[in-house]
């Protein structure tokens, strides 16, 4: 458990925001970002974020659809290559959807980091504070 905690705090996707914004190394940026999340109290909200799971499952769904379409097409035309084409189509479909969803996932990560760095900014609405309040009420 301790090793997993260290890996999460020293290597997380939120560190990429600091790598790009402050030109830090990845490990240092991840540690700094996680420290900011701890200080502001966003760790519980970050742990409940489903963006990564949604992107992964969307990638699997895209790969499955690609595999299904290519499998049907290859069975109709080239029965000998149906398995290989289905596997290749799944991989291509998965990675195409993951690439398409990388931008929204990065935007969500950047929003969390920007909020953690300056929660009192007028650029943010009340979404994160309201969610944190809901989480606090549900645990009390």
Automatic annotation (TrEMBL):
It is found in: Cell membrane; Membrane. Coiled coil: none annotated. It is a multi-pass membrane protein. GO terms for cellular component: plasma membrane. The chain crosses the membrane at residues 50-73, 85-103. It comes from the Eukaryota. InterPro entries: Choline_transptr-like (IPR007603). Pfam families: Choline_transpo (PF04515). One of its GO terms (molecular function) is transmembrane transporter activity. Keywords: Membrane, Transmembrane, Transmembrane helix. Choline transporter. Belongs to the CTL (choline transporter-like) family. PANTHER family: CHOLINE TRANSPORTER-LIKE (SLC FAMILY 44), CHOLINE TRANSPORTER-LIKE PROTEIN. This is Choline transporter-like protein. It comes from Trifolium subterraneum (Subterranean clover).
């Amino acid at each position: 458990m301790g090793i997993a905690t260290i890996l999460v705090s020293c290597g997380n996707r939120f560190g990429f925001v600091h790598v790009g914004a402050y030109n830090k190394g990845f490990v240092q940026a991840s540690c700094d970002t996680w420290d900011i999340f701890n200080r502001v109290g966003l760790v519980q909200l970050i742990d409940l974020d489903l963006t990564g799971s949604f992107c992964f499952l969307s990638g699997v769904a895209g790969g499955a659809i690609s595999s299904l379409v290519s499998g049907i097409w290859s069975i109709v035309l080239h029965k000998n290559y149906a398995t290989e084409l289905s596997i290749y189509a799944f991989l291509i479909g998965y990675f195409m959807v993951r690439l398409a969803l990388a931008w929204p996932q990065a935007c969500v990560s950047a929003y969390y980091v920007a909020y953690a760095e300056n929660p009192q900014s007028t650029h943010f609405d009340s979404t994160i504070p309201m969610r944190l309040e809901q989480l606090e009420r549900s645990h009390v």
